[in-house]
Write a structure and sequence with these properties.
The protein has 137 residues and is mainly β. The protein has one helix at 128-135; strands at 6-10, 13-15, 21-23, 37-41, 51-56, 61-67, 70-75, 80-85, 90-94, 99-103, 110-115, 124-125. The chain has a single domain, classed as Jelly Rolls (Sandwich). The protein contains one helix and twelve strands. The strands form three sheets. It has a five-stranded antiparallel sheet with strand order 1-9-6-11-4, with no helix packed on it. A five-stranded antiparallel sheet has the order 8-7-10-5-12. A hairpin with a 5-residue loop joins strand 2 (13-15) and strand 3.
C-alpha cells in the first residue's frame, strides 16, 4: 500500500475580532510540500458538473472548499474514500497517484487548490484503466 496517499488537513482559524476569520496554510507546516501553483474553481452552477476524473504521476495537491460544499471521491488503486468538503478550515492532501473525482457542488462552491508543481499535461493520467495499471507497477 502507498504511504500517505491522502490525509485530512486541518487549518487553524484565527478570529480577527469583529473583522471575521483568517486561515493560513504554510509550507512544511500545514502543507506537506512546497507550493508552486495555486488555482481555484468556481461558478459550478450545473448540478451535473463533475470535475477531476484524473490522477497525477508526480504532482501533490492540497484541496480546500473555501465556500459552499462538494463531494470528493479518492482512489489510490487499493483504497477508496468519499468525503464532503464544506469548511474553509478543512482540506485534503492528495499525494501522487490518487484518482479523484469532485461532484455535488453547492451553487456557491469555491474550491482552492495548492499544487506542488507547475501545470504539465504529461503528468496527468486521464483514463481510469491506465490509472489502474499505473497503480500496480
Amino acid at each position: 500500500m502507498k504511504k500517505n496517499s491522502w490525509q485530512q488537513i486541518n487549518l487553524k482559524p484565527i478570529k480577527d475580532g469583529i473583522d471575521g476569520y483568517l486561515c493560513v496554510a504554510e509550507n512544511a507546516i500545514d502543507i506537506p510540500f512546497s507550493v508552486q501553483r495555486v488555482y481555484y474553481i468556481y461558478n459550478l452552477n450545473n448540478p451535473e458538473a463533475v470535475r477531476g476524473k484524473h490522477a497525477h504521476k508526480e504532482l501533490e495537491q492540497a484541496i480546500f472548499c473555501v465556500n459552499g460544499s462538494f463531494e470528493l471521491w479518492l482512489d489510490d488503486g487499493l483504497m477508496q474514500e468519499q468525503t464532503t468538503l464544506d469548511s474553509p478550515e478543512k482540506g485534503v492532501y492528495m499525494g501522487a497517484g490518487v484518482w479523484h473525482v469532485m461532484n455535488n457542488f453547492s451553487s456557491d462552491c469555491v474550491i482552492l487548490v495548492l499544487a506542488s508543481d507547475f501545470f504539465d499535461e504529461q503528468d496527468y493520467i486521464r483514463d481510469y484503466a491506465e490509472f489502474k495499471e499505473f497503480c500496480h507497477k
